[in-house]
Specification:
The chain is mainly beta. The protein is 14% helix and 50% strand.
Length: 187
């Protein structure tokens, strides 16, 4: 009887620790968060933003195996501060927003690094899904947290560039993505 009680006590303590160490649930505050990209056109860098996106984040430095990011982007909301370029980017030869209006990034694994954290996740863009690694920092705050990071996406891996736009002579293949997510508790 004593042994059964001891096993139950140990299991209860372990279950309590597992629950306490689980990831905290957050959602990005769209008014305070930013998702931007930097591309190269004709040898000069340009910056654009996505005005509409959402992120659901479950994260704890002590529960990386259970942590997860799920980011959904309205690709039509891109804005590079140049209407002609934006129209071309939304077109069938590049992002093809008429057929692929959203993009999604979902993490699969996370690890601690010397400067913060890294994650690998699946990015679906233009109907193509590929693994994309990200680097990020997680900064707890009194009423949530801040997630700041970056990734490099090869546009041609996702079919973003057909016809004349497949060449990297005028538009670079690598696109840097930078994000700052202001996270609020979810639920």
């Amino acid at each position: 009887m004593k042994r059964a009680a001891m096993v139950a006590l140990v299991l209860g303590v372990l279950a309590g620790r597992a629950n306490a160490a689980g990831p905290a649930a957050y959602v990005a505050d769209p008014a305070q968060s930013r998702l931007e990209f930097v591309g190269v056109q004709a040898g000069a860098p340009f910056t654009g933003v996505f005005h509409k996106f959402g992120a659901v984040v479950d994260f704890s430095p002590d529960a990386l195996d259970a942590s997860r990011f799920d980011v959904s982007i309205d690709v039509n909301s891109l804005d590079s501060m140049d209407q002609d370029r934006d129209g071309t980017m939304r077109g069938a030869d590049l992002l093809d927003t008429a057929h692929s209006p959203t993009s999604r990034y979902v993490t699969r694994s996370m690890a601690r690094t010397a400067t913060g954290y890294s994650a690998v996740g699946s990015l679906t863009l233009r109907g193509v899904t590929r693994d994309v690694p990200i680097e990020f920092k997680f900064v707890p705050a009194p009423n949530g947290a801040r997630l700041v990071g970056s990734a490099t996406v090869k546009r041609l891996d996702f079919g973003v560039g057909r016809g004349d736009w497949k060449s990297t002579e005028w538009v670079g293949d690598a696109v840097k993505v930078n994000f700052t997510l202001v996270l609020k508790p979810r639920g």
